[in-house]
Amino acid sequence: MTLEHYPPASAVLAAHVAHLVEQAPTVRRYIDAAVTADQLAEKAPERSGCTAEQRDELVQQYLAVLDRQDWCTTIRSDFDPDSDAYFWFAGNVAMRLQLRAFTDPTVDR
Q1: Is residue 108 a part of any domain in this protein?
Q2: Is residue 109 part of a domain?
Q3: What is the 3-state secondary structure (H, E, C) of the chain?
């Protein structure tokens, strides 16, 4: 399923990322936001109901949240590194997006 034929898609995504800025970080929120950013970044913008400029701005906004220190600390301290989910996420989504929590060894655990 895509947002391609959903006219307010870019507004809904913008509202979602704006809401995340105000939220406390959790593993679930981190993963959901990262997967959303990854899908936006990997697909043609029209598949997300956005222009290229809207899509690029949304991805940058998601990454800004994901790279915040509190969000990095939460994912690194609360996501079980021995789980299959961690292995998949780190090797796919986190790698493609170059997420700071997974690439910067100075992020607190």
Answers
A1: no
A2: no
A3: CCCCCCCCHHHHHHHHHHHHHHCCCCHHHHHHHHHHHHHHHHCCHHHHCCCHHHHHHHHHHHHHHHCCHHHHHHHHHHCCCCCHHHHHHHHHHHHHHCCHHHHCCCCCC
